Amino acid sequence: MKEVMAILRRSKIQETKAALDGLGFNAFHLYSVSGRGKQKGILSEIDPPMGEIISERYSEEATYSFIPKRLLHIIVADEDVQQVVDTIIRVNQTGYYGDGKIFVCPIKEVVRIRTSEKGKEALK
């Protein structure tokens, strides 16, 4: 099993959710996070623009130390990792700074508390 963590644009979350749901991956967690990458939080270097909420509050020249993003966590079987990663890339890749990052980490064990099921059975 693997944990796939993806830092994504807020504007792409609904499309990402729909794409994962369409593949049968409907169990995941989503967090609001803030961060910055190579652009160092400079809004004028983000293209496409970060959206109406930020553009209404900040001028083009203004800097924003941390950009609001979403962090998606999903645990999948080893054989499903590439499909999930490819889907996240397909939906979120714009070619501009701020598209995000994907991290894949090994998971040693999963236990469903309610039933004590372990491993792949706990993911179903």
TrEMBL record:
GO terms for biological process: regulation of nitrogen utilization. PROSITE patterns: PII_GLNB_CTER, PII_GLNB_DOM. This is Nitrogen regulatory protein P-II family. GO terms for cellular component: cytosol. It comes from Carboxydocella sporoproducens DSM 16521. It holds the Pfam family P-II. InterPro entries: N-reg_PII, N-reg_PII-like_a/b, N-reg_PII/ATP_PRibTrfase_C, N-reg_PII_CS. GO terms for molecular function: ATP binding; enzyme regulator activity. Belongs to the P(II) protein family.
